[in-house]
Amino acid sequence: MPAVECSDLVLRYGATAAVDGISLQADAGEVVAVLGPNGAGKTTTIETLEGYRTPDSGSVRVLGLDPRAEHRALVSRIGVMLQSGGVYPMLSPRRAVELFRGYYRDPEPTDALLELVGLREVESTPWRHLSGGEQQRVSLALALVGRPEVVFLDEPTAGVDPEGRIGLRAIISGLRERGTCVLMTTHELTEAERLADRMVVVGTGRVLAHGTPAQLAVAGGDRPSVRFTSRAGLDTAAIAAALGAGVVEDGNGTYTLDAQPSPRLTADLATWLADHDAALVELRTTASLEETYLALVGSDHDRPHDGDPVPVRRRTRKTR
Amino acid sequence: MTLRRGETLLLTVGIPVVFVVFFSEVHVLPTGHESAVAFVVPGVLALAVMSTAMVSLGIATGFERGYGVLKRLGSTPLRRDRLVAAKIATVVLVELVQAAVLIPVGLGLGWRPAGHAGAVAEAVLLALLATIAFGGLGVLLAGILRAEVNLAAANGLYLILLLLGGMLVPVAKLPGALAAFARGLPAAALSGGLHATLGGGSAIPTESWVVLAVWAVATPVLASLTFRWE
Question: In this predicted complex, what is the ipTM?
Answer without folding.
Answer: 0.81
